[in-house]
């Protein structure tokens, strides 16, 4: 009987991409993926530690596997990723002796060898790997780690310095995923637009080059990227963004705060005005582009007036959406302790969310009447280039992966409604 792997993934797209490649390591050795923990022979928990809550969730998930392992002593538990890196193998195995392997985010490359050590010699399954469907949209990692030093962020310490992968590797993976049915590739990196690769011949492959080459691969309708940093946009990027319609009209550009003093304390390296200038350049290159962002509320020392600068940035920048987080102290002892009462932290978060909802509604409404290209994800809905979900009227039953034209006729909650044109 085929052995089965259950993967539980916390955290960001980078982790999802890592989970996919970990899944492939198992599939190569004859495993199948399963959604059910009960029927699994091995479990991978891919953890996150970006905020304390993420780490707590991962840790309680590991705890819940105790019963599973008791019922199936021959089963294997792998704990991998960012919280595994931060907490360390010793701590995790001490607290959860039933865990078989702990592999931190910095050593994620060694998962394959560990799988081999536990399960090597199985009936290899390279064929399944090649034909594995990645869905309409597939992640491809271009950069690992981060070399910035934002004061609040644990990522550089758990994922290490930024490393750019060779362009041939990235393009080969994108091409394989396109051949398996992915019409859209999402290029990933912590500061993805700082991508720059020196070739052995002495040339440089820039972020814009990488996007352009990915967009030129057969079968690719659209290329997205996550997440850029305001410090690393180049004129070459804006030119490509303006001229190549396959580069999605959507930029997720985390700002974190609207206050210059807080941005400086966070060591973000830009001011509010510089952030707004980048957003303006994005819109200048592609007037229909949508920009979304991330905010942290309650950074230590954030005053009511400084918080209001985050509030006012929403309308001023015209972001279509924002993820908002309460400040969470990370590195023990080193990062600043929060100094805002929990109730006030929550109140600020709620005010920010309300402002975003209001603004998102206006932006969604402004799309009515437009003609949009929709990349179909299931039979009747898909995403526009600016990353809005569009549902098509009359249940047209389209093939996932097809790119269709639709007229936007209205909105429904957070999504657009559209009429199929062709
Ligand atoms: N506290 C709260 N939010 C954080 N983020 C990163 N570190 C922290 C922290 N210590 C948020 C940022 C980042 C997103 C991925 O998570 O907004 O952009
Ligand atoms: Fe992703 Fe950061 Fe969480 Fe690691 S800690 S999974 S890099 S969000």
Description:
The protein is α/β, with parallel strands linked by helices. It is 37% helix and 23% strand. The longest helix has 24 residues, at 342-365. β10 and β11 form a beta hairpin. α10 (235-243) packs parallel to α12 and α13 packs parallel to α14. The protein has a five-stranded parallel sheet, with helices on both faces. A five-stranded mixed β-barrel has the order 16-17-18-20-19. It has a three-stranded parallel sheet with strand order 6-9-12, with helices on both faces. It has 14 helices and 20 strands. Among the domains are: 4-129, 3-Layer(aba) Sandwich (Rossmann fold), CATH 3.40.50; 135-248, 2-Layer Sandwich (Transcription Regulator spoIIAA), CATH 3.30.750.210; 371-420, OB fold (Dihydrolipoamide Acetyltransferase, E2P). The site of 5'-deoxyadenosine (5AD) has 12 residues, from β14. 5'-deoxyadenosine (5AD) is lined by residues 50-51, 152-153, 254, 256, 294, 296, 325, 327-328, 330.
Q: From the 3D structure, determine the CATH topology of the domain at 4-129.
A: Rossmann fold
| Bound chemical compounds | 5'-deoxyadenosine, iron/sulfur cluster
* Cα distance spanning the termini: 46 Å
Question: Which shape, going by the Cα principal axes?
Answer: globular
* Percent of sequence in beta strands: 15-25%
Structural class: alpha/beta
Gyration radius (Cα, Å) is 22 Å
- The average pLDDT value, as a whole number, equals 94
CATH class call of the domain at 4-129 = Alpha Beta
What name goes with the CATH superfamily of the domain at 4-129?
Methylthiotransferase, N-terminal domain
Got a strand count?
A: 20
Helical segment count: 14
């Amino acid at each position: 009987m085929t052995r089965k792997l259950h993967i539980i993934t916390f955290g960001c797209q980078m982790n999802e991409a890592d989970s996919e490649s970990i899944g492939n390591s198992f599939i190569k050795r004859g495993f199948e993926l399963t959604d059910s923990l009960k029927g699994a022979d091995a479990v991978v928990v891919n953890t996150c530690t970006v905020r304390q809550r993420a780490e707590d969730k991962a840790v309680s998930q590991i705890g819940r596997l105790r019963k599973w392992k008791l019922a199936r002593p021959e089963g294997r538990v792998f704990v991998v990723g960012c919280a595994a890196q931060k907490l360390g193998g010793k701590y995790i195995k001490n607290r959860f002796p039933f865990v078989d392997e702990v592999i931190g985010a910095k050593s994620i490359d060694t998962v394959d060898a560990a799988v081999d050590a536990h399960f090597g010699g199985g009936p290899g399954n390279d064929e399944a790997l090649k034909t594995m469907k990645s869905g309409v949209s597939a992640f491809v990692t271009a950069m690992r780690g981060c070399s910035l030093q934002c004061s609040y962020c644990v990522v550089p310490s758990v994922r290490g310095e930024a490393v750019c992968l060779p362009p041939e590797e990235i393009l080969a993976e994108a091409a394989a995923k396109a051949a398996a049915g992915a019409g859209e590739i999402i290029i990933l990196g912590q500061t993805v637009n700082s991508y720059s690769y020196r070739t052995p011949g002495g040339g440089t492959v820039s972020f814009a080059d990488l996007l352009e080459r990915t967009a030129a691969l057969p079968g690719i309708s659209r290329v997205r990227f996550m997440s850029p940093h305001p410090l690393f946009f180049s004129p070459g990027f804006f030119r490509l963004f303006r001229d190549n319609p396959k580069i999605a009209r959507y930029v997720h550009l985390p700002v974190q705060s609207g206050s210059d003093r807080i941005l400086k304390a966070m060591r973000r390296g830009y001011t509010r005005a510089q952030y707004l200038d980048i957003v303006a350049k994005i819109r200048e290159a592609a007037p229909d582009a949508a920009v979304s962002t991330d905010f942290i509320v309650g950074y230590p020392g954030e005053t009511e007036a400084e918080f209001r600068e985050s509030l006012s940035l929403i309308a001023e920048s015209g972001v279509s959406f924002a993820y908002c987080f309460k400040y969470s102290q990370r590195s023990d002892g080193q990062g600043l302790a929060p100094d805002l009462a929990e109730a006030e932290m929550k109140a600020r978060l709620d005010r920010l969310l309300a402002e975003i909802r209001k603004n998102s509604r206006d932006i969604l409404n402004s799309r009515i009447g437009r003609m949009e290209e929709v990349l179909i994800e299931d039979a009747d809905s898909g995403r526009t280039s600016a990353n809005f979900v569009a549902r098509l009227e009359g249940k047209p039953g389209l093939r996932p992966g097809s790119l269709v034209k639709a007229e936007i006729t209205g909105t429904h909650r957070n999504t657009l409604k559209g009429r199929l044109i062709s």
